[in-house]
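Late entry, evening session. Most of the bench is empty. Finally got around to the prediction I had been postponing all week. Sequence below, unchanged from the version circulated by S.P.
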Amino acid sequence: MAIRAAVFDIGNVLEIAPDLGVGRRWEARLGLAEGEVGGRLADVWAAGAIGVVTEDEVRQAISDRLGVADEQADAIMADLWEQYLGTGNTELIEYCRGLRPRYRTGILSNSFVGAREREQAAYGFEDLVDDIVYSHEVGMSKPDPRIYELSCARLEVRPEEMILLDDIEPNIAAARAIGIRGIHYRDNAQAIAEIEELLTPDGD
């Protein structure tokens, strides 16, 4: 069956977001043990990923659980967003842009509340693709099969007609399990070559 849509992950695919050591830096400043920031806020990060808390509630949790003033909570949030957004993978973004209008294009991302607005401001993702499925907006995350089915439905394609490029193997495996052509992102040259192979008649 011919491919009609290509869908891209964001983190470490369309955005390159290395660990900037934000948690460790703030642990040192606040006199906390290594890993304590993540440990105290683990449930908040999980809740933000499926949109059951607001940004204000996240900020308040940072203040309460780390014992910091509002100004420090804002600074922590700003540092976390800087790390989250990383830098744009310009080559892959432009490749994705060039697939339209021959193919439907989309983004399917395990995200965090507030990501759409910041990523639009930084990278213009809403103008790049036909549809974006953010986990924090739809209340479920990869590798839940339902989120892949939702992306297919919104792009009006069957799973067998979609390519998904992702850097996390369990996410790719879950996509393949429902018939999507999953590609494991390693670098731009490899990813583009594998997408192009599937877009040719011999790749079907």
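Two things to note before I forget:
Residues 5-17+87-203 form a domain with the Rossmann fold fold (CATH 3.40.50.1000).
The radius of gyration is 18 Å.
Will write this up properly tomorrow.
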